[in-house]
Design a protein that fits this description.
Length: 214
């Protein structure tokens, strides 16, 4: 119970071995602390936890439950890269929302699923605070955006053209640029592998664990 309270994670003995369940919720917190009344996922907790899961001989698979509004780009990409680099079976399930930097986190797993009612927001990189209006700043934004687009398109079935189209749409979000897509739409465009529930995600993990054990 303490692990669930502090890290939003838990381990459960399944029929094929131990499965680690990790939740990524609220806002992904980066180098700056967010207000105490915000629900956050802290990257300094998640990164070593992922390394421990990969190294553990007892843990056979990773289930990632996503319901996030997004957050720090570099922290989110860092977590996503760790998930993508794991050899153990991994599956993500988007519940509620997998917005902004939640998109790379969702597609980082070897299998990605989304609930029919869940949503995903795709938009260009944003920055809070003072922005210096010089060419170097715009170039920096473009390079950050390219890192995200490159990661998402290399770890999912969505094309670069389609993802850019969704990201730059001007008629989807009031007072903003981007798109909100729901379960079936996310699957239809190739961003997410399939519509699924918790049992579907667990069935996938059990199947992969069984294959690896033979």
């Amino acid at each position: 119970m303490e692990e669930i309270k502090e890290l939003g994670s838990a381990q459960q003995q399944g029929r094929e071995g131990i499965i680690h369940c990790l939740t990524i919720i609220g806002q992904v917190e980066g180098h700056q602390l967010l207000p105490e009344d915000n629900k956050t996922t802290k990257y300094e907790h998640i990164m070593p936890l992922l390394a421990a899961v990969e190294e553990s001989e007892e843990i056979k698979g990773l289930l990632i439950l996503l319901n996030t509004v997004g957050g720090d780009v570099e922290a989110g990409l860092g977590i996503a890269e760790l998930i993508a680099g794991m050899k153990k079976p991994t599956v993500s399930l988007v519940l509620g929302g997998g917005h902004s930097i939640g998109v790379p986190l969702a597609v980082a797993a070897k299998r990605s699923l989304i609930a029919p009612s869940a949503a995903m927001t795709i938009h260009p990189v944003r920055l809070n605070g003072v922005v210096i209006g010089v060419p170097q700043t715009y170039n920096y934004f473009a390079r950050i955006q390219e890192r995200i687009v490159g990661f998402v398109t290399s770890h999912s079935g969505v094309s670069r053209e389609k993802y850019t189209e969704l990201m730059m749409a001007t008629d989807e979000i009031a007072n903003d640029v981007g798109s909100v897509i729901y379960g079936e739409e996310a699957v239809a465009c190739g961003l997410i592998d399939g519509i699924g529930t918790l049992s579907d995600a667990l069935d996938y993990l059990h199947g992969e664990i069984e294959k690896n054990s033979k």
